């Protein structure tokens, strides 16, 4: 079994290079999409999956490090974030005022929100408080 400290160290190494690589991959994918919105949405979907995997690793590391009231607080915080994340993503995707761009706007929010949450959790893994 990997120790909590080893897991945090591994996470730190992975995330330092992942941001730059992820940005470059996303840019290349969008360039290949050649302005076709369904192809650009596929690029976003792939990017969201990468961030989601990182978020889950960071959350898991924190969840297993924390105990008692800190663990309960983390679980409540994550649940509240997820409820807001999903409801706002859905709201934006179904906004009749944005027409066919609704999915692009929704996905942009989803990607930005999951990236922010992931970076926040990864920071907490690296800097135990």
Reconstruct the topology from this structure.
Layout: H1 4-33, H2 37-65, H3 68-93, H4 102-126
Helix pairs in contact: 1-2, 2-3, 2-4, 3-4
Describe the structure in your own words.
- The model is unreliable at 1-18 (pLDDT under 50).
- The chain has one domain (4-126).
- The protein is 85% helix and 0% strand.
- It has helices at 4-33, 37-65, 68-93, 102-126.
- It is built from 4 helices and no strands.
- With 129 residues, it is mainly α.
Q: What's the total helix number? A: 4
Helix residue percentage? over 70%
Largest sheet: none
Overall 3D form: flat
Estimate nothing, just give the exact number of structural domains. Answer: 1
> Radius of gyration, Cα only, in angstroms?
17 Å
Indicate the proportion of strand residues.
under 5%
N→C terminal distance: 24 Å
Runs in which pLDDT lies below 50 for 5 or more consecutive residues are 1-18
> How would you describe the oligomerization state of the chains in this entry?
single chain
Structural class: mainly alpha
Total number of β-strand segments?
Answer: 0
Q: What's the average pLDDT?
A: 83
**Sequence of secondary-structure elements:** HHHH
Q: Tags for this entry?
A:
mainly alpha, 4 helices, 129 residues, 0% strand, disordered N terminus
Can you describe this structure in just a few lines?
With 129 residues, the protein is an all-alpha fold.
């Amino acid at each position: 079994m990997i120790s909590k400290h080893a897991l945090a160290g591994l996470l730190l190494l992975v995330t330092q290079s992942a941001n730059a690589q992820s940005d470059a991959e996303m840019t290349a994918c969008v360039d290949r999409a050649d302005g076709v919105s369904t192809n650009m949405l596929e690029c976003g979907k792939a990017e969201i999956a990468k961030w989601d995997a990182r978020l889950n690793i960071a959350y898991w590391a924190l969840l297993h490090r924390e105990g008692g009231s800190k663990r309960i607080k983390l679980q409540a915080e994550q649940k509240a974030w997820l409820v807001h994340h999903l409801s706002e993503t859905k709201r934006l995707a179904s906004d009749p005022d944005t027409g066919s761009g609704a999915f692009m706007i929704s996905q942009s929010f989803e990607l930005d929100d999951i990236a922010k949450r992931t970076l926040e959790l990864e920071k907490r893994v690296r800097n135990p408080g």
